[in-house]
Design goal:
Blueprint lengths: L4 E3 L1 H8 L9 E7 L27 E5 L7 H4 L6 H9 L4 E5 L2 H9 L5 E2 L2 E2 L18 H20 L14 E4 L11 E3 L2 E3 L3 H5 L10 H26 L3 E4 L27 H20 L1
Helix pairs in contact: 5-7
């Protein structure tokens, strides 16, 4: 069954405190980006994000602080989300779910100067002669700096478990994921009159990089970048952050067709799965791992 409730912090307190007190077998905390954000609603009655289709064997409430566009740097700053710290101190959680790092990669890929490390703009694409091998368009030094930066702030997020409330969540397991391969295409995310993106497409068609309009080149670049991100996240779980699980979700979704401008394959737009995609990720990759951890 799906979670009995997916709520924000105030909604959770209204559920578990008298007079509207409810009991749940499992209490799960979630933080992250648009893959967890319930503001993203492609179609009524369908999963809005990756939290909606998760399945549990017992009654479960998920308290989510996720926000579309959020980065791991912002998520991990204690001063940026005091309610998250309140939640850490409020009770012992069964699991902490985290969706983060994808926006850091996408923002640095766009390279418009808005993503900064140490106050300096970072871009992981660089100009190269037209027709070059795809690796020549990747700034490996900038990519390494970005991955180290993501690594640092994942550690800082993990440290929040010990920052409040007598360390009651110091051994609570963090569960994160690796995203999936995107198709660079002119398919922005549309919310009524609001249009966000496209992202990779904007970068690859920027004349300053001189990247050919070649879907194979674009595919090689995006696959390389998302594989390096996945490797770094998985390394966190195996070697440096205790009580952490990272689920490899790469190569789960049907890719979008190059040149499409809307829903295609298992994708709603360039970087967000559609309801079927979120359900596939939940059923095939996320829910089975959560079941093993909660058993």
């Amino acid at each position: 069954m799906s979670a009995d409730a997916i709520v924000g912090w105030d909604g959770y307190l209204s559920l578990v405190r008298p007079p509207a007190s409810r009991s749940f077998d499992w209490h799960i905390l979630a933080e992250g980006d648009s893959w967890f954000h319930f503001g993203f609603a492609p179609r009524p009655g369908k999963p809005r994000n990756l939290l909606d289709p998760l399945k549990f064997e017992k009654s479960t409430v998920i308290v989510s602080f996720a926000l579309s566009g959020d980065t791991i740097k912002h998520i991990s700053k204690p001063g940026s989300n005091p309610e998250l710290l309140q939640a850490m101190a409020y009770r012992k959680w069964n699991l902490i779910l985290l969706s983060a790092g994808g926006n850091d990669l996408i923002d640095a890929l766009v390279g418009d100067g808005n993503y900064k490390i140490g106050g300096q703009p970072i871009a992981i694409l660089k100009p190269a002669p037209a027709g070059s091998h795809f690796m020549e368009y990747i700034n490996l030094d900038a990519l390494q700096l970005l991955l180290d930066f993501i690594d640092l702030y994942y550690h800082r997020f993990a440290a929040l478990r010990e920052s409040e409330g007598g360390r009651i969540n110091r051994d609570t397991r963090i569960v994160s994921h690796c995203y999936d391969y995107i198709t660079a295409r002119n398919a922005p995310a549309v919310f009524g009159p609001l249009k966000l993106g496209p992202w990779a497409y904007e970068a690859f068609t920027n004349p300053k990089y001189n990247i050919p309009n070649d879907q194979n080149q674009w595919k090689f670049v995006t696959e390389y970048l998302f594989e390096r991100l996945a490797e770094r996240l998985q390394r966190l779980a195996t070697s440096s952050i205790p009580n952490m699980t990272v689920i490899n979700t790469l190569d789960t979704l049907n890719p979008a067709k190059p040149g499409t401008t809307g829903r295609s394959g298992d994708w709603a737009n360039e970087i967000h799965p559609n309801p079927d995609g979120y359900t596939k990720l939940a059923d095939q990759k996320i829910s089975p791992v959560l079941a093993s951890l909660l058993s």
